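=== Structure Prediction Worksheet ===
Name of assembly: unnamed complex
Input type: mixed (protein and possibly other molecules)
Chain count: three
Listed entries:
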Amino acid sequence: MATAAVMAAVPSSSPADVAEAVVMAEAVPSLPQCQQPVFVEGRGAKLRDHAYSRKQKSLGLLCSNFVALYNRDDVESIGLDDAARRLGVERRRIYDIVNVLESVGILVRKAKNRYSWIGFGGVPMALRELKERALREKSGLAPLPVEEPSVAIMSDDEDEDKMGDADGDTESEKLSQPVDNPSDNKPGAPRCRLRSDHRKEKSLGLLTQNFVKLFLTMEVDTISLDEAAKLLLGEGHAENSMRTKVRRLYDIANVLSSLNFIDKIQQADSRKPAFRWLGSAGKPKAENGVTIAVPPPGKTISNKRAFGTELTNIDINRSRLDSTIPKKAKLTQSGGEILKNCKLSVQKQLGQGSKGGFVYGPFHPAGARKQEPDNGNKGHTDNVQNWESLAASFRPQYQNQALGDLFAHYVEAWKSWYSEFAQGSSMMQQHFGMPVINQFL
DNA sequence: AGTTCCCGCCAAGAC
DNA sequence: GTCTTGGCGGGAACT
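=== Predicted Assembly ===
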C-alpha cells in the first residue's frame, strides 16, 4: 500500500530513496494501522483539496514516518532539509518533530540544520537524567553540575538554568531547564541569560521535558492536557496562554504518543482525553494535588495501542531477578562490576523473554509474545517497586566527583555494550530498538 | 458546539 | 542583509 504513496511523496527522490522509504515503511509491522508510514504529498494547506485529510498530516504520523525513515544503524546525520523533502512536509514541521525527539534523547543537534540520530538507545539515559533533575528541583537541591553528555538534555551551550525566573514563580519555573542553544557555543558568546532566553523557556523541547517530568516525578501516570498546562504554567494565567499551552501539549502528546511513550485514553466522564504514561502504568497515584484522570478499571477506552504496554518492560520474574542486586551496592561496586551486573541482568531477562516471562515494551518485536493483560496487572505494583529498586541500583547520587566519574565511565561502557547488543538483535532493531533497556531508567 | 491540532506568519537570533 | 529557528494563534477538521 505504501509504495504508491511513497512514490507520490518523494517526487524528487532518487529510486534508491524511494526504495529505502518503502523498505522502512514495511519495517514497522507492529505499528497500528494509523501509524504505518504513510507519505503524503506536502505543500501546505494551500493545496487543501478534495483529498485533504487532517489525519494524514498529523505530527504523530509525521513522527512515525520520521522514525521509520531514520531509525537505522547506518543513519548518523540527518539534514532537516533532507528530512522535510523526503517526508514531503515543510521544514517548520520538522522542527516540531526534532525538538520533541531531541528532548527524549533520540536525536541530538549537531549543527545548524543537522542532527545526529541517536536512536531509542538514548532514551533511557535521557529519561533517567530528566527524572533526576526533576527530583532535585523538587527537593530543592542544587541542580546537577553542568551537563555531561547526556543525549537528551545535553546543553552544549550554556550554564544550567540558574537565572532568576523571568516571569514567575510557577511550577513551570521550578521545572524549567535550559534548552539547547548551540549557537551560543562559541567563544565570546554571552554566558548570561537575558530576556532572549525567555523564548527558550517556552520552547517545545523544554515543554516536552517538563511534560515528561510530570509523569516521572509526580506519581502521576495519567493526566489531562488541561491539568498539565495548569501545572506547567501555574494557576492564574490568562485564558489565552493556557489555550496556547494546551495547543502545544497536543502537539507534544501526539508525537510522544506516536512513539508509544504515552497513550491517549478517553475519560469516561468528559470528552477530554487524558494521557497515560506507559512507563509506569498501574502505579499508585494521587499526590501533589493533581487530579488524577484515571477512572476505575474498565472506564477508560484506550484510543490506541496495538502492541506492548509499557516503556519499562517490567515483570515479576525480572523484578525478582533484579532484586538480587543489592540496592546500595552502587557505592562499593566497581564500574566493571556494575556493568557486568547490568549486562547479566539484561541477558537473563532476554532469556526469560524467550521462555514467555518477558514483557516487551511499546516497541514490541513482531515475533515476540505480547504482555498478557492479566499478568500485566497482577503484581504490577511490586514490579514498579522492584523496578525502582533496580533503577536505584544503577543510579548515581553524584555525591562526589569520583563517583560521578565512575558513573560516567560506566555509562560509556554500558552504551558501548548496548550498541553492540542492539546490533546483534535484529528483532529489536526492527522495532525501534529497545524494549529491554528501558528498565534501567 | 466544543475539541483537536495543522498551518504558516513573523519575530528572534545567527551568520 | 539573508537564513534558520520556532513561538504563536487563527481557524478548519474532527467528534
